[in-house]
From TrEMBL:
Its EC number is 7.6.2.9. GO terms for molecular function: ABC-type quaternary ammonium compound transporting activity; ABC-type sulfate transporter activity; ATP binding; ATP hydrolysis activity. NCBIfam families: 3a0106s01. This is ABC-type quaternary amine transporter. Transmembrane segments: none annotated. SUPFAM superfamilies: MOP-like, P-loop containing nucleoside triphosphate hydrolases. PROSITE patterns: ABC_TRANSPORTER_1, ABC_TRANSPORTER_2. One of its GO terms (cellular component) is ATP-binding cassette (ABC) transporter complex. The keyword ATP-binding applies.
Amino acid sequence: MTIEVRNINKSFGDTPVLRDVSATVESGSLTALLGPSGGGKSTLLRVIAGLEQPDSGTVRISGVDATRVAPQRRNVGFVFQHYAAFKHMTVFNNVAFGLQVRKRGKDEIRRRVTELLELVHLEQMANRYPAQLSGGQRQRMALARALAVEPEVLLLDEPFGALDAQVRKELRAWLRRLHDEVHVTTVFVTHDQEEAIEIADSIVVLANGVVEQAGSPHDIYDNPANPFVMRFLGPVTEIDGQLYRPHDIDLSIEPRAGSTPARVTRVVRLGFEVRVEMQIGEQEAWAQVTRGLAGRLDLRPGSTIHIMPSHDSRLRVETETLPSATA
């Protein structure tokens, strides 16, 4: 169930939110719309769902022009950040609601809901009410409800945004496993780079209503299209006007051909990793090394080290004016 978005423009009043946006979501893939707040991610998701109409451009789902098709006729499941659960209904009835609206038989509803509750590991919670569930359990219930009507496309708007960090980690791993079982074409909105990289097959980076880059997590991380993408998709440090990943900086006690001297200003131990903050002339930079290497080099504030980027030059991105973090 491929989704093709072509030349979408959308403004609210005089404020442009999407500017000539084009992207393709491959059938059966798990695709992340990633970017800063106000970048247009949720608006694009709502345009795909039919909850917003674009000012211009087209949305094609499985080769069919769905741009002006009503949301209920697109066979799309939508999960909001805040669950939108029916508080007066049990978990079972929340999941069954879409099937009841479609007037499915009682036996079919019971079978389908039971299967889904087992799939999302809530079969023991069927008779509870949403208020009796944890945040993670309510989100799994919302996903089961969206899947109940067997949508061709599943759209998730920051599905884990309201949850604490540990529950987010658990649920994103669970979502990846769930997707591998049901193979529904899925698009989810997130501003969490680690979340997108960990579970998505492909990423569309949006900022200021423009697609900055689209591709696999590996390609975007290692071959960013511009400084904004490089900065947004992971930590960076700047040396001599170039951006590098901090873990791609080699440190040594002795000078080497092409190395640059630096003075260590701070050493921060973060579990297995160590952040080494440095001064290079008037410029501040930092590198990320293992605790073992930090110990062997005896890194401490005031000591002099010699640094050299360790990776292929194609991973360097020349600095330039970057897009604003918000639109």
